[in-house]
């Protein structure tokens, strides 16, 4: 603690990102990145954007990119907001739409950045326990709230809610903004984007970090009716008017335009996930049903932290959370078939 810090800084508990190793050649299955490269068309667009024009500021509103995304989803441009990774978009959402007199609700096991933003923006919150099987029970959200945020599929469990259930939630809470964080939606869940025109309280958040292999570019988006986007614009223009640089705008746009490559990569990840789940089950793991690009698994006879450490010694990194209820689970990102095979091989001596 420093005498120079603002009081709010003294009270923060910052988010701890998964390890990004600097030197070693590791099989990296710890931060849910895509094992396949970005679309070659996105790479070409970014290379073309590295030009004289970089001396000029980028379009502050990313108009062209928002246009492409809105066409992709059948929305209008004023229903799309973009930011520097969905983490930044979420930060603006917490600041601009989730702070009310009544508490924000989210699951007890969920994206661990949510409580961090609550700390930063002083948002009061209640964590609603997931059911015994780690599913979201909508009935438990029938309590006083100012807003609700849920990842769908949930992280780190991978379990998805159906669109009908999301719609029930929207109908049950017409006076609250309901944020559906769809970071992993393209790997097997249904997007709530199709509900936007009917629900003024719905806000959908997505990212290009997972299904579009652009975690390094930092582009995220929010979609909802124009009055919600306006709140986010107001926060953004009070924070950083140029969140997306020229390279990011060009790359993100080309990634959205290359539908064929996107579908091919998602399908490969899904196929590998299904074979990894079977292989883990054969090794005795219990694996939660996953609609994401990771699986959440526990072994009834092996301590998860010990397994994670044993894997690391063999050059395979997975994510282990020390949090109550899930401290016996490993979250394993879906790699290539070869990377998942390396994981299974490294598990063998640890399970003997
Ligand atoms: C549920 C969820 N939401 C949002 C994010 C943030 O993604 P990004 O900031 O890379 O867009 C993540 C990243 O892991 C996540 O798991």
Taking strands numbered 1, 2, ... along the chain, how are they ordered across the largest sheet? 2-8-7-6-5-3-4
Largest sheet: 7 strands, mixed
Q: In terms of structural class, how would the helical and strand content be classed? A: alpha/beta
Please estimate the helix content: 25-40%
Please trace the helix and strand order, writing H or E for each element.
HEHHEHEHEEHEEEHHHEEHEEH
Strand content: 5-15%
Unique bound compounds:
pyridoxal-5'-phosphate
Short key terms for the protein model shown above:
12 strands; binds pyridoxal-5'-phosphate; seven-stranded mixed sheet; 37% helix; three-stranded antiparallel sheet; single chain; alpha/beta; globular; 11 helices; 352 residues
Topology of this protein?
Layout: H1 7-11, E1 27-29, H2 40-49, H3 63-73, E2 80-83, H4 85-97, E3 104-107, H5 113-121, E4 125-128, E5 147-151, H6 163-172, E6 177-181, E7 202-207, E8 220-224, H7 226-236, H8 246-257, H9 259-282, E9 286-287, E10 294-298, H10 304-313, E11 316-318, E12 329-333, H11 337-351
Parallel strand pairs: 1-11, 3-4, 3-5, 5-6, 6-7
Antiparallel strand pairs: 2-8, 7-8, 9-10, 10-12
Pyridoxal-5'-phosphate binds at residues 32, 85-87, 111, 151, 155, 181, 183, 207, 209, 215, 220.
